[in-house]
Amino acid sequence: MQEGTMELMWRTSHVSGGNAHYVEALYEQYLVDPSEVPDEWRNYFDQLPRPEGAPSHDVPLSPIRDQFYQLAQNRRGPAAGPADSGENKKQVKVLQLINAYRFRGHQRADIDPLGLRSPTPIPDLELSFHQLTDADMETSFQTGSLFLGKDQAPLKEIVEVLEQTYCRSIGCEFMHIVNTDEKRWLQQRFESVRSKPDYSVDVRKHILERLTAAEGLESYLASKYPGTKRFGLEGGETFIPMVDEIIQRTGNYGTKEVVIGMAHRGRLNLLVNLLGKSPSELIDEFDGKKVIQQGSGDVKYHQGFSSNVMTEGGEVHLALAFNPSHLEIVSPVVEGSVRARQDRRDDSEGAKVLPVVVHGDAAFAGQGVVMETFQMSQTRGYKTGGTVHIVINNQVGFTTSRPDDARSTEYCTDIAKMVQAPIFHVNGDDPEAVIHATQVAVDYRYQFNKDVVIDLVCYRKRGHNEADEPSGTQPLMYQKIKSHKSSRELYVASLVQQGMISEDEASAMVEKYREDLVAGNHVANALVKQPNTELFVDWTPYLGHEWTGDADTSIDMTRMQRLAAKMCEVPEGIEVQRQVAKIYEDRRKMAAGDLAVNWGFGETLAYATLLDEGHPIRLTGQDTGRGTFSHRHAVVHNQKDGSTYVPLEYIKEGQPNFTIRDSFLSEEAALAFEYGYSTTTPNALIIWEAQFGDFANGAQVVIDQFISSGETKWGRLCGLTMLLPHGYEGQGPEHSSARLERFLQLCAEHNMQVCMPTTPAQIFHLLRRQVIRPLRKPLVIMSPKSLLRHKEATSTLEDLANGRFEMVLPDQGKRDAESVKRVVLCSGKVYYDLASYRAENGNDDVAIVRLEQIYPFPKEELYEVFKTYPNLEQVVWCQEEPLNQGAWYQSQHHMRLVADMVKEGLGRDLKFAGRPASAAPASGYMSVHVEQQRQLVEDAITG
């Protein structure tokens, strides 16, 4: 067996990782008395070299054997340890006990401030389980890898250290981590200080000051606005010193930005006490004054905010993401915003921008998007260098408090183990433990670039909101809460007892904070009043633009052909798969004008021209590299070694990033990520492509709460583009419709664009328009499937070079306009079926007009086309979708209006041609599909 293979075997073997200490202990016992270990282990150890000398075999030592050989060589002799074999057996048991505390000490930890946590018997932590007794407490044993500061200690001291470290106010879960370096690092951080560092008086006073601010704001609002919803932080006030510590410590790492996502609980407190929102502005919101001048606005506990604060490491920009009531959906939005900021800073390690996501305990356990967000955390297209997750654990979700109703796991945080994130459960009534857990969490994130979770176990003093009466559903919990002192009161008592502060000093903090609130002064003590604007994203060029559908997207022919040739270059040495090679050869012919332009060429050339003009591009989704329907092939796979080459990354020297990634199999988190990315990168083309258009309904919350309404609720601009393959091909209900009707139902106030382009030139100009025009609106494209290779769905190079995106495409036939009696208005690929039927049957009095942009509805452009037919008698709307779906119900009033502008009464008689109303989007039987398609086309042309 090769050395490299053996090394891999050692790292992945059952004798490594979390089991290493146990196996080492077994081996020590085996060296004393082989009969004392199980047969299978004795047989295993019998094959290892004896410690008296070097191994007798001639082959190189395997890493496994070398590990045990070194253990044997370094093992202390009889003089350093107990003399008899019985004591040696106990030595092994002590090492097992140490490991048991690391694995299960958190289950005994005092992490619940209310003391409601049901004690669970932990046999592994009992001396008797390891065949130890009280009589062994004074006996000295080897401490193994325990960070005790000495090699030997009495068992009494070892147990005391383990209890202090793992069973007090912090419950550490990290032994599920495979990486030994990470585990050893975490053991050292907690064991070396017994999970309780000795903080200076200044640090403790600062903790108290932040606790006072947290409690002070809630008390003030409770007295001024009793019963008004604010989702207060009472019971979890240590959240404020925790986030304060994250910000300050992050600044010491040289971080420039911190992006925070959180739901309702404690949001107002964070805004005022850490981000520096003016208390007077908050009071205005409570008084119902309108502070947003445009749009619908949103409730105060959904609002975002940004500011700059000063840390010892320099100025840090803070951004709190806007968040709807869908409790966890903001998590991937934050990750997308952070990745965009990191990409802008060329920060591939995540050293300069930190994501912090705050969760509720019930939502963290219950919402599937949490899993999706963890799953993306280490992937190429979505990683951000690790996220600090904070769970404000109220121990109740709305009114659900029984764990066997709320989840199937022991802790609400168990989902984080899927990515081997360490989890620190910490008692919210122990502020110093909270700070220590926070410091370790931040340091871990920067040391290992991975996610970490702080589970702040606390309670909510009031109900789900301040209008609720919680004792109706949680009587015992709220009896306890009524008599329970606040975290600040408990901490003041502790500091006074230690002589670190007087009662008068503590009272003075309360008075000072109250005076500042009443005066409307800023109470975020690190706020920068004149921030460094270089830390901001400049949206100025994109603000204040009225809707326009026009933009100059033309391009010089010579330059376009040069770029087209460049995007088809594949270096020598890369063996291209046969069909892909044919695609690239055809594209070279298209670039030379020898072949008509197809969809893949038009789309890819749009990207090349935008890159050449300085616009970054990010394209993600399931199978985007190839394209689900094999039309794109922007990523070339070398058939020799599996390596990849992306021609669009090499358009010119110094070009902006072209990022194309096949995503993990997610819609909700993946789309939310791209939304967050696009709201932070105004000059880029950001595209999310669904594998099939209807799969987007797995991300419906993102579409409803962010994409369609983010601008009107929060003034948040977004230029995200969605490619949703759509079209009836006889492939059944779930592979037909992108649910066009749902998007149109969400359209109002020019909030987004919905388009259904039908030619390569149209997609070319549509994608270019999205970036070149300074207007930033989400773009939903019902992209095709069969049209990707349809022999009629082609364009010329001149169409690309000299054209623009046409919101309405007039009839392409050379017929006499005066002879036209009927206009068939349609969108999408049904046009080609209509045109084919008309040509076969000679219906020269029928004109077919394509509506390429469905919203905003292009009334003026459609009117200009309609009025060219002076003898028009009838207008028909034709769609492939059933009557109750597609564009009919949401757009017919626009069509009628335009028709009536041409001829009074024409709109009233507007006809529908399409499939009958249906509960499912399409038939699953090809024969039925074909008959329906034939009938709707015939109805449109002749019916």
Kindly describe this structure.
This protein has 943 residues and is of the alpha/beta class. The chain folds into four domains: 3-168, Orthogonal Bundle (Helix Hairpins); 201-535, Rossmann fold, CATH 3.40.50.970; 557-728 and 736-802, 3-Layer(aba) Sandwich (Rossmann fold), CATH 3.40.50.12470; 808-942, Multifunctional 2-oxoglutarate metabolism enzyme, C-terminal domain (Rossmann fold). 39% of the residues lie in helices and 12% in strands. The protein is built from 32 helices and 24 strands. An eight-stranded mixed β-sheet has the order 3-9-10-8-7-4-6-5. Helix 16 links the parallel strand 9 and strand 10. The radius of gyration is 33 Å and the shape is globular. It starts with a helix and ends with a helix. 47% of the residues are buried. Residues 1-18, 51-65 and 69-84 have low confidence and may be disordered. One of its GO terms (cellular component) is oxoglutarate dehydrogenase complex. Its cofactor is thiamine diphosphate. Its EC number is 1.2.4.2. It holds the Pfam family Transket_pyr. One of its GO terms (molecular function) is oxoglutarate dehydrogenase (succinyl-transferring) activity.
What structural keywords apply?
disordered N terminus; 943 residues; globular; eight-stranded mixed beta sheet; Helix Hairpins; Rossmann fold; alpha/beta; 32 helices; 4 domains
Task: Describe how the helices and strands are arranged.
Layout: H1 3-12, H2 20-32, H3 39-46, H4 63-74, H5 85-104, E1 140-142, E2 152-154, H6 155-166, E3 170-173, H7 180-191, H8 201-224, H9 239-252, E4 257-262, H10 267-273, H11 279-286, E5 305-311, E6 314-320, H12 330-344, E7 353-360, H13 361-366, H14 368-376, E8 388-393, H15 403-406, E9 423-427, H16 431-448, E10 452-457, H17 475-482, H18 487-497, H19 503-519, H20 557-566, H21 578-591, H22 599-612, E11 617-621, E12 636-637, E13 644-645, E14 658-662, H23 668-678, E15 685-689, H24 700-707, H25 710-714, E16 721-723, H26 740-745, E17 753-755, H27 760-772, E18 779-781, H28 797-802, E19 808-809, E20 822-826, H29 830-841, E21 846-851, E22 853-855, H30 859-866, E23 874-882, H31 888-902, E24 911-915, H32 926-942
Parallel strand pairs: 4-6, 4-7, 7-8, 8-10, 9-10, 11-14, 11-15, 15-16, 16-18, 17-18, 20-21, 20-23, 23-24
Antiparallel strand pairs: 1-2, 3-9, 5-6, 12-13, 17-22, 19-21
Helix pairs in contact: 2-5, 5-6, 8-9, 8-10, 8-18, 8-19, 9-16, 12-23, 22-27, 23-24, 29-32, 30-31
